Amino acid sequence: MAIRIVYMTAGNVDEASRIGKALVQRRLAACVNIIDGVRSIYEWEGTLQDEPEVVMIAKTHADCLPELAAAVKEMHSYNCPCVVDLAVSGGNNAFLDWVRGQVGPSPVTDD
Fold first, then answer.
1. How far is 29 from 32, CA to CA, in rounded Å?
2. What are the backbone angles phi and psi of residue 84, rounded to the nearest 5°?
3. What's the CATH architecture for 3-102?
4. Parallel, antiparallel, or unpaired: how do β-strands 47-61 and 31-44 relate?
5. Which of 4, 41, 74, 80 has the highest Cβ tally under 10 A?
């Protein structure tokens, strides 16, 4: 499974936390980092914006990207949320294996 990093933004920490927790609980991401204090400058609907935002970075794999993006759009307050995936070409194999094990259907256990 190809590991991906998904870069996203949110309007505030509470929204980022709610989205991040839902992605991990739904096993769409192994982990979501939340970075507060970002300042975003962009044009939206013809007006220059200069707004505080929060960055979210999710670790997942390629098979989950469509469902992850749909979940973020469903939960997000923005009309057009930033959800961008980046391919991972290498890294700590133990960590990459952990991501693979955390994302997707829950493993079946014998009780």
1. 7
2. -130, 130
3. 2-Layer Sandwich (3.30)
4. antiparallel
5. 4
Cβ neighbours of 85 (radius 10 Å): 18
Residue 45 Rama label (left phi>0; alpha psi -120 to 50; beta): left
| Mean predicted lDDT score pLDDT of the chain | 94
**Under DSSP, is residue 7 helix (H, G, I), strand (E, B) or coil?**
strand
Helical spans, DSSP H, in the chain: 13-25, 65-75, 93-102
| Residue located via tokens 């590991």 | 3
CA distance 107 to 111: 12
Q: Which residue has the tokens 């993006």?
A: 69
From first CA to last CA, the distance across the chain in angstroms is 28
What Cα–Cα distance (Å) separates residue 99 from each residue in 11, 32, 44, 63, 79? 27, 11, 35, 12, 29
Q: pTM of the full predicted structure?
A: 0.90
